[in-house]
Amino acid sequence: GAGVSQTPSNKVTEKGKYVELRCDPISGHTALYWYRQSLGQGPEFLIYFQGTGAADDSGLPNDRFFAVRPEGSVSTLKIQRTERGDSAVYLCASSLGPTLSGNTIYFGEGSWLTVV
Amino acid sequence: QKEVEQNSGPLSVPEGAIASLNCTYSDRGSQSFFWYRQYSGKSPELIMFIYSNGDKEDGRFTAQLNKASQYVSLLIRDSQPSDSATYLCAVNQGGYQKVTFGTGTKLQVIP
Q: CA–CA distance from A116 to each of A9, A22, A40, A94, A97 (Å)?
């Protein structure tokens, strides 16, 4: 697609529920990132995929968070037993290749998650 | 020490002036440096990237990198009210693919 597409754009869920957030990267981009941004903060790194594999998941806050990218394109971020502290904007980004090779990352519009 | 540090602001400049935004980073092995602009309620958009020491100019924007001082800055010449936004500094730490962001500096350009 022309840009990074994220769905849903807004999600309100009850504490304890399970949530899935979807990301469709720019066509041809092999690298995919998930970030989380709280109000007044910069984006916080969660996980990075190169192709189908999670090359760096060091930013996932705990085992309630999990992400997959089974075919190397669309990715899903999964959050189990949601807590009010999970409320944030979840940003997906993609790049043509690894950033260390000189590629830059482009963000989607984000999924605004509110846990009540 | 935070990996990427920015003054949160707000930084207020009059229209037409030069806005100077600064960022320091902790990992001396960092290789790539980015400036993103983020309007309220929107996602970050890339303004510039820089890899080598010195200045890089693109229109009204100039990025400056000093690896010895672990310092990167963004200058915006002839500031316009439409430049009012939060500016995020981001760094690709050495050896890692992830890009780490600062908390951002809020810029207000006063007409």
A: 17, 21, 20, 30, 37
Reduced to 3 states, what is the DSSP secondary structure of residue A99? helix
d(CA B23, CA A107): 21
pLDDT category at A100 given cuts 50, 70, 90 is: low
Pairwise CA distance, residues A106 & A32, whole Å: 9
Helix (H) or strand (E) holding B57: strand B54-58
Q: Do A109 and B42 touch (CB under 8 A)?
A: yes
Is B103 in contact with B87 (CB distance < 8 Å)?
A: no
Determine the distance in angstroms separating the CA of B24 from the nearest CA of chain A, rounded to an integer: 15
Nearest CA in chain A to B31: A100
Query: How far is residue B63's CA from residue B50's CA, in Å, rounded to a whole number?
Result: 7
Q: pLDDT, tens digit, for every residue of A10-44? A: 999 999 999 999 999 999 999 999 999 999 899 99
Q: Are strands B11-14 and B105-110 parallel, antiparallel or unpaired?
A: parallel
